[in-house]
Write a structure and sequence with these properties.
mainly beta; Thrombin, subunit H; Methylamine Dehydrogenase, Chain H; five-stranded mixed sheet; 6 helices; 70 strands; flat
Length: about 1000
């Protein structure tokens, strides 16, 4: 028996209303600007629509986007691309709005600006020029707007009017003539000089039945892209084409006889769409829509009225593709595509419901394709006739049709038998394997205690099944049709390789191995070695994207294609490397359930949310959904097939979809991405700044340091399904490669380092047709002042100033110390030295005057003490005198002391000086301690050594300074050497050497003492 098919693929429609941000429910007109944005006029404002949100323009005082009025009559575009906005409340003005800069110009139609009479019409001619028609008692005047609220009179038609508020329609021909109709004087042809060439009477319309009055108003007058004039008068049935050269009106053939046609629209292809009402004077509800191609061919578009019978305005680039319908409750975007996808066994239902669920497809490669339904039926499809038969599944034991439940898998063997599985009953307990012979229609069933999950047939005709036993999660079975027995598969150690995995799919590879997809990863069964290997999800390229595997396929290169719940994976078995593809790469859904090669290296991939066409070389996906004619967006495992003619069959939760690749893979030109808005959050002002104008001519986007983050909003000016448009971005200077953004139409950036970047954006429509051109936005991140060159310069200057001040301060301190030292040494020399010298002289005088020996000794003692004090004082004064800081001063002082101490004792000394910078200044402590060490050593030689000869050496050796004092004397007692000295003098030497961080050694030899100081 034949299965009854009934399926209605409704036109995909997206509906927008006041709930979505539209300013009013009544849409009066729709146009598209040059950049691709949609502009929608309503009775309460103008709306800019980018496919995602509306920006409203009106005369509300709180709105930043102002118009002169809100109740808009019509929209048009002039030759400069500006919106020409007219209002229902007044004919005394119109607005010009630049869609790019959002600059508004209000043009007033007053006598002081050159307009005589009462304005009755503002229109845009085919050249994009703005014309104004005004009526006075004595003339009808036509003016052209020339800018800056100035007009030039085109013609003045001398005619008397009794009614100044008539309804007017006007058309300008390419030669400058006009066709004018008003409700008082009727239709007339006016020459470019203002002369009346033809005044049409009622007889010129050649209509027998006329229910209106003439002269009267016109429903419409329209001059199309071919120069044809379309005319429909109120009360007149039919539509007329006007031949201006012959002044003839001809009825448009093929339209419904007696129909009243009240609105006309033209797309960019030159197609004409005309609406029809039931009675004269009635505009709504509409009763019909007719599309007329430029070649005159008529198409019935009445089916569009299923979306609404109150269509007020229409905009479309192609009436056979996407239409924008302005209706009384909002706007609808309708995809007027005649689907090239054949639907079988499908029902007319919404996406949230399910129809016939398909679980298997197989074919004989000649004429017939077989469809397995999840419940009840197995079908045979005849490719020649297009008929579908339901195959009888009759039990040979009972003679009744079996109850088919949870069926799945469909394999056709070489003997003409269809193999598939099902449950033993509706409770899904136990499994049944069915063999159905397509010639004899005989059915044989093999029962098994456990339910089956997957089936495949190997090259030897052996059936392999996956099941779920109660003792483990999964089990692999083999069924030999000759033996007709189920045999569990075990590895070489006698274990069940699927004990920890619930299986979903099984496939035999070209080398005879079995691949099994499960809930716990991918299993490779080497039947020859009886070994099992497992692949599971890991991070990186060496693992699955998900452990849940629904479908497998082996390509001609031996690679394993894996459908998971986290995208499509491709495994290279030799290297173990996985390639991952997901929604981020453009795949329709991450849950993949079918993989079918097209024979040219490309693949059709069915998912749980759409159908994808994948081109591996380009790594691009093109996606298709129910809006493209599919019966449903959700597909199923085992339900895919490609026949011998290259026709594809995909089954899901609502029947079968059949098509050829060329029916869907129509290469369409996708326009480049358009920038719609830039928002930035200014942290200093704690406010969000929005820029929605001056975007197309932007040379550079400059982001200030106070902008914490900014967001780039963009859109693709194709409205097939705007919310499914796809985008990818590349921030040159930051990103290494393109980043897939999915359907997100904005990109938020924050904390970018200062510098220059370029943001590249590409877009694709819902089917994955990527634009060849890209939007490039130069971005300059201005650094904070603390990150600028001048900040570093100022820091350097400030640092230098601080260092200079510190240096000057320290220098001043040193100079002050030196001044104090100089003053102190001078004062000591002048005061104390003079005093001590006076004491010595007085004792000498007294010594010569006294006769008492005892007193003489005392005076002599006092004189010696004062002289020693003078000597000590001289050393102190020299050591603190800042004028004696040079090496030369130290050497001079040493010579003086050596002369003073050694020469009187007839001790000969030699001083050797090597590699010393005599003009170099020395630190005070270093100079003092070196001198006192030298003095102490010379004093010891003079007092205790008994030497006759002394050698003194001072020299620099590399970075080290050394002082060596050697005598040839013999001490009277033993002393410890190498730094371990006896006596207060030697202790002083060691202490002073330590102060200047020098090493001091005193060596005793047979030929005298040697003192070595090294620093």
């Amino acid at each position: 028996m034949a299965a009854q098919l009934s399926y209605s693929n409704d036109l995909p429609v997206e509906y927008y209303s006041v709930n979505d941000g539209l300013s009013d429910r009544m849409v009066t007109d729709i146009v598209q600007s040059r950049r691709g944005l949609i502009w929608i006029s309503t009775q309460n404002g103008l709306n800019r629509f980018d496919g995602y949100e509306f920006i409203v323009f009106n005369n509300h005082p709180d709105n930043l986007h102002q118009l002169s009025d809100s109740n808009i009559r019509s929209l048009d575009l002039d030759k400069e691309g500006r919106l020409v906005i007219t209002y229902r409340t007044t004919y005394g003005l119109f607005d010009l709005l630049d869609p790019e800069t959002l600059e508004l110009t209000t043009v007033k139609l007053l006598p002081e600006y050159g307009i005589e009479g009462i304005p009755r019409l503002v229109m845009v001619n085919p050249e994009g020029e703005i014309l104004v028609l005004s009526i006075s008692e004595t003339a009808s005047n036509i003016y052209q707007y020339i800018g800056e609220n100035q007009f030039r009179q085109v013609i003045s038609i001398a005619e008397r009017h009794q009614q100044l508020s008539v309804a007017v329609h006007l058309i300008q021909f390419p030669n400058g003539d006009f066709l004018l109709n008003d409700s008082e004087m009727g239709l007339r042809h006016i020459s470019g000089s203002g002369q009346l060439d033809k005044h049409f009477g009622i007889g010129d319309f050649q209509i027998n039945e006329f229910q209106g009055r003439y002269p009267g108003s016109a429903y419409f007058m329209h001059c199309d892209r071919q120069g044809r004039v379309w005319l429909s008068l109120q009360g007149y049935p039919g539509v007329f084409l006007y031949r201006p050269n012959d002044y003839l009106l001809e009825a448009v053939p093929g339209l419904e006889a007696g129909g009243y046609f009240n609105s006309i629209w033209e797309d960019e292809k030159g197609n004409i769409l005309i609406s029809r009402s039931a009675r004269a004077g009635d505009k709504f509800p509409l009763q019909g829509l007719t599309c007329i191609r430029p070649d005159g061919q008529l198409f019935n578009f009445d089916y569009l009225l299923s979306t609404s019978r109150y269509i007020v305005s229409v905009f479309s680039r192609d009436f056979f593709r996407t239409l924008f319908l302005g209706i009384d409750t909002g706007m609808k975007i309708v995809q007027n595509r005649q689907s090239k996808i054949d639907a079988y066994l499908a029902e007319d239902l919404s996406q949230d419901r399910r129809g016939p669920v398909m679980r298997g497809i197989a074919g004989d490669g000649k004429r017939f394709v077989y469809f397995l339904r999840e419940a009840k039926y197995l079908y045979e499809f005849d490719q020649l006739t297009g008929f579908i038969d339901t195959l009888p599944l009759v039990s040979p034991t009972t003679g009744e049709e079996i109850s088919l439940a949870c069926a799945g898998g469909l394999e056709l063997d070489a003997e003409g038998n269809l193999w598939f599985y099902s449950c033993q009953n509706t409770s899904s307990e136990g499994g049944r394997l069915h063999k159905y012979n397509i010639e004899s229609c005989n059915l044989k069933t093999y029962e098994f205690p456990y339910q089956f999950n997957a089936i495949t047939m190997d090259r030897d005709g052996i059936i392999w099944l996956c099941t779920q036993p109660t003792t483990s999660k999964g089990m692999l079975l083999q069924f030999d049709p000759q033996v007709e027995k189920f045999l569990p598969y075990e590895d070489k150690e006698g274990n069940n390789p699927l004990r920890d995995a619930t299986p979903h799919f099984i496939m035999e590879a070209s080398n005879g191995n079995l691949w099994i997809g499960s809930e716990n990863g991918l299993y490779l069964i080497d039947r020859e070695k009886r070994l099992a290997r497992t692949f599971r999800a890991t991070k990186g390229k060496n693992g699955l994207a998900s452990d849940i595997v629904y479908v497998l396929h082996e390509d001609e290169r031996g690679r394993i294609w894996i459908g998971t719940t986290n995208g499509l994976n491709i495994l290279e078995p030799q290297t173990g490397i996985f390639h991952h593809y997901s929604r981020k790469n453009g795949l329709a859904s991450n849950t993949v359930c079918g993989i079918v090669p097209d024979g040219n290296g490309n693949y059709w991939i069915s998912t749980y949310n759409g159908l994808s066409f994948f081109e591996p070389e380009r790594e691009t996906f093109r996606n298709f959904y129910s809006m493209d004619g599919l019966t449903h967006d959700e597909f199923n495992r085992f339900s895919y097939y490609r026949d011998q003619n290259g026709r594809y069959y995909f089954g899901g939760v609502n029947g079968i979809n059949a098509f050829y690749s060329e029916d869907l893979l129509v290469n369409e030109s996708t326009p480049p991405v358009v920038l719609t808005k830039i928002t930035r959050y200014n942290a200093k002002q704690d406010s969000t700044i929005v820029q929605d104008c001056h975007l197309s001519g932007m040379e550079e986007l400059v982001i200030n340091p106070s902008d914490s983050y900014f967001t780039i909003h963009f859109m693709l000016p194709t409205f097939t399904s705007p919310r499914r448009n796809q985008f990818k971005t590349w921030l040159e200077g930051y990103d290494k490669q393109w980043v897939y953004q999915g359907s997100n139409p904005n990109l938020r950036l924050n904390k970018l380092p200062p510098g220059a970047y370029t943001l590249h954006i590409k877009g694709a429509d819902a089917n994955g047709n990527w634009s060849t051109e890209e939007l490039a936005i130069p971005i300059r991140m201005k650094p904070a002042f603390t990150q600028t060159f001048w900040f570093f310069v100022l820091c350097l200057i400030a640092g230098s100033a601080i260092v200079y001040v510190i240096f000057q301060n320290r220098l001043e301190q040193r100079l002050q110390v030196e001044r104090i030292r100089t003053k102190l040494s001078s004062d000591l020399h002048d005061e104390l030295s003079g005093l001590l010298s006076g004491i010595a002289m007085q004792t000498d005088v007294l010594q010569m005057q006294t006769t008492d020996e005892k007193s003489k000794d005392r005076l002599k003692q006092i004189g010696e003490v004062s002289r020693r004090a003078m000597s000590k004082m001289s050393d102190v004064i020299w050591s603190i005198d800042s004028r004696k800081d040079k090496v030369e001063d130290l050497l001079h002082r040493m010579r003086e002391h050596a002369d003073e101490m050694l020469i009187p004792l007839n001790i000969v000394y030699q001083m050797h000086i090597s590699k010393l910078d005599r003009q170099k200044k020395m630190q005070v402590t270093l100079r003092q301690n070196l001198y006192f060490i030298f003095k102490e050593a010379i004093n010891n030689i003079s007092k205790h050594s008994g030497a006759t000869k002394v050698n003194i050496t001072l020299k620099n050796e590399g970075q080290d300074f050394s002082m060596i004092i050697k005598d040839n004397g013999v001490p009277s007692h033993k002393e410890r050497v190498n730094g371990k000295k006896s006596g207060q003098g030697l202790a002083n030497l060691a202490m002073r050497a330590q102060r200047i961080k020098a090493d001091l050694d005193i060596d005793k030899g047979e030929d005298g003492y040697t003192i070595r100081l090294r620093r």
